[in-house]
Automatic annotation (TrEMBL):
GO terms for molecular function: ATP binding; hydrolase activity; nucleic acid binding; RNA helicase activity. It holds the Pfam family Helicase_C. Residues 379-465 are annotated as: Disordered. Residues 32-210 form the Helicase ATP-binding domain. This is DEAD-box ATP-dependent RNA helicase RhpA. GO terms for cellular component: cytosol. The keyword DNA damage does not apply. Residues 1-29 form the DEAD-box RNA helicase Q domain. GO terms for biological process: response to temperature stimulus; ribosome assembly. InterPro entries: DEAD/DEAH_box_helicase_dom, DEAD/DEAH_RhlB, DEAD_box_RNA_helicase, Helicase_ATP-bd, Helicase_C-like, P-loop_NTPase, RNA-helicase_DEAD-box_CS, RNA_helicase_DEAD_Q_motif. Belongs to the DEAD box helicase family.
Length: 479
């Protein structure tokens, strides 16, 4: 089947053909005719199946009759509303809409949190037929009365399961209750969970259900590798692989925002250009990081699953699962970032002994055997080399960019006098005068026993930390 057989107008066909697309994907072939018929749609489709075009192309066909070049905002009311779980996905949908409307005078904009509302308000006041938004920021605009939704004809809930996972269910219900009852509703989700079905029952009219073959049979263009390694040495193996395999561009997936931030810091200490991206980052910072990564100036992008939604990096060569996801579906989503548009890619998973269960779940879902391998020098259970520093924790103290080692002080193992961290924090100049004796001509500083004959043992006497004394002094310990 060809796009030209789906009933789309020449303006839309011309725009998509310029992108090199002539044949629809399975979800597009099934969904486009149903959306054009005006029916509500409940579609099961995962990321990477072409679902954005599956709902956006027929929406544009429906809105084509409203296309005009008038400068009056009244001539451009919001007629299509797309709700997205993340800023990145909303932005990616917006980019696609601009591509598809190249030859149609329809206006579209995106609104999401983390950005100043004023520019978004200015855009909305110009009049926009299509608005792509995250639920929270859309409610902000509704409350500020900077957007009117009384003319909305089509509502799209994209990645509805993700929005529910992120706690947007009440926001979604509130928004849907504000829309005209006579509208078309399109819901796209990777799964039909109970809450999804309940939402459909409450707000959709006799929806048609469309399911395409699940993309659990991962892309054949992606080579999948699993390396067994102790959890404490994952960071070192990752740095080793990035450097030895000459990974010029790689996305590394972590399960939490905290671990993503920590890993990015550790990779920087290893001499790699790395940044973390997740929901707590300011939007301006996120966009700057993504821009640097796409341009190639940023080598390693450490991301959480939610933050990576909607990322579309052309010809991304490597993806690394630093931590195996709890959901095997997320594994499929992760490695789907590479091997796109016919290009080849490599997906590497670092598996610790505690992640066996996740590994087995991935094999079961994808119906593949992913045999763990071992990288020489990183065998599980093997002792780490002495020069392999442990990853620094966020609470580690540092001075001038230099970190303290495990011994608690900068003097290291070869220091003539070893002190405990608590002692090293004490200012020797604050010690009682009776505890110090300065030799003639400043020849040195000796400790004396101010409590000789007392019950205190010799071991309990305090030694003066050498590094905390002025350079001209040296320490001699009485034995």
């Amino acid at each position: 089947m060809l796009f030209s057989e789906l009933g789309l107008s020449p303006e839309i066909l011309r725009a998509i053909e310029e992108q090199g697309y002539t044949e629809p994907t399975p979800i597009q072939a099934k969904a486009i005719p149903l959306v054009l018929s005006g029916r509500d749609l409940l579609a099961a489709a995962q990321t990477g199946t072409g679902k954005t075009a599956a709902f956006m192309l027929p929406i544009l066909e429906r809105l084509k009759k409203f296309a005009n070049t008038s400068v009056s905002p009244a001539m451009h009311p919001v007629r299509a509303l797309v709700l997205s779980p993340t800023r990145e996905l909303a932005d990616q949908i917006g980019v696609n809409v601009k591509t598809y409307t190249k030859y149609l005078p329809l206006r579209a904009t995106t609104v999401f949190g983390g950005m100043n509302m004023d520019p978004q308000t200015a855009e909305l006041r110009r009049g926009m037929e299509i608005v792509i938004a995250t639920p929270g920021r859309l409610l902000d605009h509704i409350q500020q009365k900077t957007i009117q939704l009384n003319k909305v004809e089509v509502l799209v809930l994209d990645e509805a399961d993700r929005m529910l996972d992120m706690g947007f269910i009440q926001d979604i219900r509130k928004i849907m209750s504000m829309l005209p009852k006579e509208r078309q509703t399109l819901l796209f989700s990777a799964t039909f969970a109970t809450e999804i079905k309940r939402l459909a029952a409450d707000f959709m009219k006799d929806p048609q259900t469309v399911e395409v073959a699940r993309q659990n049979a991962t892309n054949e263009q992606v080579e999948q590798l699993v390396y067994s390694v102790d959890a404490g040495r994952k960071r070192h193996l990752l740095s080793h692989l990035i450097k030895t395999r000459d990974m010029s561009q790689v996305i590394v997936f972590c399960k939490t925002k905290i671990s993503a931030d920590q890993l990015a810091r550790d990779l920087k200490r290893d001499g790699l250009v790395a940044e973390a991206i997740h929901g707590d980052k300011a939007q301006a910072s996120r966009l700057e990081i993504l821009s640097s990564f796409k341009e190639g100036s940023l080598r390693v992008l450490v991301a959480t699953d939610v933050a990576a939604r909607g990322l579309d990096i052309t010809e991304l060569p490597f993806v690394v699962n630093y931590e195996l996801p709890n959901s095997p579906e997320d594994y499929v989503h992760r490695i789907g970032r590479t091997g796109r548009a016919g290009a080849s890619g490599i997906a590497i998973s670092l598996m610790s002994p505690a992640e066996t269960r996740q590994h087995e779940a991935i094999e079961k879902l994808t119906r593949q055997t992913l045999t763990p391998q071992v990288v020489e020098g990183f065998q599980p259970g093997a002792a780490a080399p002495r020069d392999e520093a442990a990853p620094r924790r966020e609470s580690s103290r540092s001075e001038g960019g230099r970190d303290y080692g495990r011994e608690g002080g900068r003097e290291g193992r070869s220091s003539p006098v070893r002190s405990t961290p608590r002692e090293s924090q004490r200012d020797p100049m604050s010690l009682p005068a009776s505890a110090l004796m300065v030799g003639k001509s400043g020849e040195g500083l000796k400790t004396i026993n101010p409590t000789a004959g007392s019950r205190r043992s010799r071991k309990a006497q305090r030694e003066v930390p050498a590094l905390l004394l002025p350079p001209r002094y040296k320490v001699e310990v009485n034995r």
